[in-house]
Structure formats: C-alpha cells, structure tokens
Design a protein that fits this description.
single chain; 34% helix; alpha+beta; three-stranded mixed beta sheet
Amino acid sequence: AVVSTQSTGAYRGTSLLSRAVLSTKAPTEESIAHKLRTGLTVRDIAVSDISGGCGAMFQIQVVADEFRGKRPLAQHKMVKDILREDVANMHGLTIKTEAPS
C-alpha cells in the first residue's frame, strides 16, 4: 500500500494514516454526557472513565424518559446508537439504564 506524506501544515511529515489517528479524539466523560443529553431527555446521568483517564473504558448510568416501557436491551441499544462513533474506539463499556419513576 502507498502511504502519502505531506510536508506542510500541522501534520508535517506524517502519513495520512497517522494524521487520521492523530485527528481522532478519545471520548471524555463530558463529551459522552453531552451526546446523551443531546439525544435523550436525561433526568440523571453519571459517566466515569474507568480506564485511568485514557478514554478506553467507561461506566455510564443514565435515567431518561425515552426508556419508559422499553426493556433493558432496547435501552442499552439506544445509548450505544447515540455513542456509535465513540463506542467503536472503546475497549470496554458498562451501561446501566432506567426510566424515571
């Protein structure tokens, strides 16, 4: 495979593959919470990076109106669909969901 290298800009001397990796930002507790608040009517949320801060493993607890009447598997799928891009780069994810009482 041919890998292109450019000598201008912020990525001087890096390959296209390296630039793609450099431009991929690891998810944070705040970015995950923001995406879930944007995609759901969140009543309560807790997001913890359990990987020591590198963004590879998260624990998510979320209470949202959209979970009413849905089984846990469907609730978890809703969360993973919202976080699809982030989940693809994670090594582990623990999700706990519930509908408001």
